[in-house]
Amino acid sequence: MPRKFFRRFLPDQATIRTNKYLAWLGAWLHHPNLWHLNRDAVAGGVAIGLFAGLVPGPLQMLAAVLLAIPLKKNLPVAVLLTLYTNPFTIVPLYLLAIAYGRLLLGADLHPVTVEPYSWDWAHWIDSLQGMTHWMLSLGKPLAIGLPALGLTLAALGYAAVQLGWRAYVVIAWRARAQRRTKRNVQ
Fold it and tell me: Burial of 118 by CB count in 10 Å (0-12 exposed, 13-18 middle, 19+ buried)?
């Protein structure tokens, strides 16, 4: 069962309670759903991790922790899933978020150019103004698209875990029933 595989890597609650760096969190880290591998806690952790992964800057893991604790979802899954955004994936994800924001705003969907203008060192003030204008033009589509993409990814991740976990359980039940039937026939 995948639960046994993942359980090897998760810390037990006694380790968490005695950790001197986490002592300030007190009883907040003691809820069983933060550490148990059940369908709802893991699906919620996946959704939180996918959403928090799009938080700008180095605040992704902190956002995952701050969402997982009050919602009582699997904390390690939420924190680890934020790692899907990295230096290789962040640019395509942000370009996708900008396109998604433009779609939601009903703006024209011309493709985003990575280099919208050519930098001219002889006229660096004009180039700086052009870059500022380009960055501000991305503001509203990015501000709308980033949370919308995060919510969409979270919903898709939650549904995928719920359906995948349910399918695994149903297949395991059927296999167990077939083994019992074979034993009873023999």
Answer: exposed
